[in-house]
Specification:
The protein contains 9 helices and 5 strands; from the N terminus they run αααβββαββααααα. The protein is mainly α. The protein has a 3-stranded antiparallel sheet. It has a two-stranded antiparallel ribbon with strand order 4-5.
Length: about 180
């Protein structure tokens, strides 16, 4: 197993600062990432056709078998933020780079640059990376006792427990929504 760099989840205090500074740059995207657990690349690849605002779900994902085309709930706290980008977008994707006259595809490199501007604004540039919102989601979920099965399904991790993998049958959208509301 390759060595992983340590990541730091956003502190509650820093998350609160983001909510207070929500209109700066791409802060809304960072908050969406904190409450969905997407890998940054997965979040940037979300297509509008896979955003169901009525049922409060989004479908996307990549990297692993468990990660591809997974449907996760939209936490009620970020629904207005997702709606904001949904209504702003006039293309196929949910997120675009709006820093130029003509919107362009939001790549990971562009997102990383916008993320860094948020960190610099708050003096956090030596604390967080674009992967930290995903770590924040997982940490918040664990702290609030989200069921492990739900946490893995939302994050796109394999469920290896035989009982959950083969013998547990749930209405996933309802179940995952109830679990995500714990954070």
């Amino acid at each position: 197993e390759r060595k992983r760099k340590d990541k730091t989840p956003f502190s509650q205090e820093h998350e609160d600062y983001l909510w207070k500074d929500i209109d700066f740059g791409y802060t809304k995207m960072v908050l969406i990432n904190i409450y969905t657990g997407w890998r940054p690349e997965e979040m940037l690849e979300l297509e509008k056709k896979n955003i169901d605002l009525e049922n409060m779900t989004m479908t996307g994902g990549m990297k692993t078998d468990a990660g591809y085309d997974r449907t996760i709930p939209i936490h009620p706290k970020i629904l207005p933020l997702v709606e904001y980008y949904y209504n702003l977008s006039d293309g196929e994707m949910l997120f675009y780079d709006y820093s130029k006259v003509k919107p362009s595809t939001m790549t990971y490199d562009k997102y990383r640059g916008r993320f860094r501007k948020i960190l610099e604004r708050h003096g956090w540039e030596d604390i967080y990376t674009p992967s930290c919102p995903r770590h924040t989601f997982s940490t918040k979920a664990k702290k609030e006792h989200m069921d492990e099965y739900a946490r893995k399904k939302i994050m796109g991790h394999a469920v290896t427990d035989v009982t959950d993998k083969h013998y547990t049958h749930l209405g996933m959208n309802e179940y995952l929504m109830e679990e995500i509301k714990k954070i």
